Give the backbone structure.
Amino acid sequence: MPNVNMTAAMLIALLLDASFGWPQSLYRVVGHPVTWLGALIDAGDRHLNHTADRNATRRLAGLGLACGVIAVAAGLGFAVSAALPAGWGGVILTGILAWPLVATRALHDHVLAVARPLAMGDLAGARRAVSMIVGRNPERLDTAGVARAAMESLAENTSDGVVAPLLWGMVLGLPGIAAYKAINTMDSMIGHRTPRHEAFGWAAARLDDIANLIPARLTGLLFALVSVRPATAWMVMLRDASTHRSPNAGWPEAAFAGALGIRLSGPRSYDGHVADEPWLNAGSPDPQPRDLARGLALYRRAIVALAATMALIVLACGRP
């Protein structure tokens, strides 16, 4: 269950990030926790992931790295939490410390950077922008493909970058949000089905699946609730989410597709290999440039609804 103090702290983190993002001036001075985690994970990948080893050995090494990185992140979170004062002072400081672990503003701005050139017919500029937020090569994507990739990233990362860290922070405080961010960063770096990482990153990928199990479904529900077509979004999510290649990403993506009356996912190319994946909300049209603006509006409504829900929890459960 959410802790009222931690819910108040995570609400502060959400409001700070939605308002300011992570300013470049701060980044230049202190960097960013994700880059710190990334450096630790990269070092572990270079020193522990030996391609000559058997897969079982590499899985065990990857599990060791995952446990170590999570222990460091959660341990630092616990140590900092223990040093904070009680009452509102501790709540505010916790919210400030959790602020860089939420990606509300960055996600919005990255998708907006795709939407603007796409709306002006600048496909090359939109491709460059979408390459910053998706793993596939965008050079062969047409206008609909770029719009679809941006929409999928917006839907999935609302769960991974906003709802999930806030939820784990509400339940477990700074150790919870730090541990989640460690898991999610590991998955993005080594949780891939490539010759180098399929065995070594197995534990990171499975932990990420578990950590996002509830947040992904809550995010889909959130999109449906703030949609102008909630019944359709709900129906599409329940019908299509389980057909997605990911056990979690299909929930917010299917709800997003149903809410906007577009189709997402479908066949795609990775490294020259075409994956014949099913559509979410098949039979609906491909997203067009104008649909990205509608998607960002849906995202903003979801963030407002999330903040309002967190505020209601604080008010209903009592002051910190």
